Automatic annotation (TrEMBL):
UniProt keyword terms in alphabetical order: Coiled coil
Name of the protein described by the UniProt record: DUF2252 domain-containing protein
Residue ranges the record marks as coiled coil: 13-40
InterPro entries given in the database record: DUF2252
Listed Pfam families: DUF2252
Length: 462
């Protein structure tokens, strides 16, 4: 069993020597073994949420934990975002479809957003892969549904409206899987969700007109994304030191410069990263040299992990900012692994995340690659290059509904990249009852999140 945990991203598990028709039939058989009713049945969980959180945080930077807790206590949804380990632990106790699919592992509504293709088109899709693994499709969908409920309640939306939205989200996911299954393999592989196609794709699902507010939001994102680049980052975060050099501005504890030893470790990691990137990127990076490095923490769940920004200056004086982000061992098995197994798991985490991102995103950052230094695994990518997100707390209900449907559609298209996805189509065929069943499951789990949040809040306020 322990070896299975270490091999949870063994891509051989999704290489099944069967035809599409045979895979669909296998999915139908799984439906008989684990029915939709079982998959929708909430199995109560009994564990100490605070102990699990503390075990995860034991691997993080101590001085950042107070800020991390502050972010988590902002709301139940913020707490949910910061504690993926709790739901991962709980999903193991639920009925599972046992269908190997490359999944995101943390597909909540704030982990979707816009990013640039190499052709500088603005695409929408999943944008966080730290928990990616080969797992059960319903784990992603259940996490998406719970996040929709939590964020929707936070927005003050009507309970009945949210209930219908949860059902519609599962319906959208099912229909998208059905549509993807009709496409040739090449069409699925090359599929991209460009911003101008975003509304049209939802319309194809037959779910009504796009609200006016969403149109305005998308137009604003298009404008903002044109200014989201390394030069803008330097304008906001840079300063000139007493030697006249351009460096990052300190803002401890979130942003701070490193000791000489830490600085050199990151430099060594960068050199190894350059050996792992595509050859054209390796040649391009030869135009740049390192100007500065800073530790810079981001997010909620990732806040407290090791994350650095590298400022590169080109031979023409232009700049490139790369983010070096610690790749943690999967929280899915972190709480149950022995120390040495967790270390072994962690040393390959960067490669796992990079591979998953390339599979689940329609196109990925060309600078994306993994590295290692200081006995830890990392992945490297451009920092904020045309990356934008929709502020869901600013949406009216109609726009929120459209956004959630879009997330469900993108999630299904990401799952369709796995060779085993016809099994998913076979399992979901004629399973409308999942729409209501998974909604009930999500509402039950939302109550669990509330109990965990209150327990954590009580612990911190002691």
């Amino acid at each position: 069993m322990d070896q299975q945990r270490l091999d949870i991203f063994d891509l051989k598990r999704i290489k099944i020597n069967k035809s599409k028709a045979e895979l669909e039939q296998a999915g139908k058989q799984l439906q008989k073994e684990v029915s939709s009713e079982e998959l929708s049945t909430f199995v109560p969980v009994h564990r100490d949420p605070v102990a699990a959180i503390e075990q995860t945080e034991a691997k993080m930077i101590p001085e950042l934990l107070p800020l991390r807790h502050q972010r988590m206590l902002a709301s139940r949804f913020a707490f949910f975002r910061g504690t993926a380990e709790l739901m991962e632990q709980d999903l193991k106790r639920q009925h599972q479809s046992n269908m190997p699919i490359v999944i995101c592992g943390d597909a909540h509504v704030n982990n979707f957003g816009f990013y640039a293709s190499p052709e500088r088109k603005l695409l929408f899709g999943l944008n966080d892969f730290d928990e990616a693994r080969i797992g059960n499709w319903e784990s992603d969908l259940k996490r998406l549904l719970v996040s929709i409920e939590l964020a929707g309640e936070e927005n003050g939306f009507d309970k009945d409206d949210l209930h219908k939205l949860l059902e519609l989200t599962t319906k959208t996911y099912r229909h998208a899987i059905k549509n993807a299954n009709k496409l040739p393999l090449s069409a699925v592989f090359y599929y991209s969700f460009e911003i101008h196609d975003m509304i049209d794709n939802i319309h194809k699902l037959g779910d009504g007109e796009a609200p006016e507010q969403m149109e305005k939001v998308l137009q604003n994102i298009i404008k903002k994304s044109q200014h989201s680049n390394s030069e803008e980052i330097i304008r906001k975060m840079g300063t000139i030191n007493d030697r006249g050099q351009l460096i990052f501005r300190d803002n401890p504890p979130r942003a701070k410069h490193l000791s000489d030893e830490e600085h050199q470790a990151v430099v060594d990691g960068y050199e190894q990263y350059r050996e792992n990137v595509r050859q054209d990127i390796k040649v391009y990076l030869a135009n740049f040299h390192i100007t500065d490095i800073i530790r810079y923490s981001v997010g909620v769940g990732s806040f407290g992990t090791r994350c650095f920004l590298i400022l590169l200056t080109g031979i023409d004086g232009s700049h490139l900012v790369l983010q070096v982000k610690e790749a943690m061992p999967l929280r899915y098995n972190l709480l149950s692994l022995k120390v040495q197994q967790a270390i072994d798991n962690g040393l390959i985490a960067g490669r796992r995340i990079v591979t998953a991102q390339r599979v689940l995103q329609s196109t990925s950052d060309p600078f994306l690659a993994s590295t290692k230094f200081g006995d830890r695994s990392y992945y490297v990518r451009q920092f904020r290059d045309m990356k934008e997100s929709i502020k869901i707390d600013k949406l009216d209900f109609d726009s929120y509904q459209l956004y959630c449907q879009t997330c469900a559609f993108c999630l299904a298209m990401s799952h369709a990249q796995s060779p085993t996805s016809p099994m998913l189509r076979g399992y979901l065929r004629h399973q409308k009852l999942l729409d209501e069943g998974l909604t009930d499951w999500a509402l039950r789990y939302t109550d669990q999140v509330d109990r965990d949040y209150q327990a954590f809040k009580k612990h911190i306020e002691k």
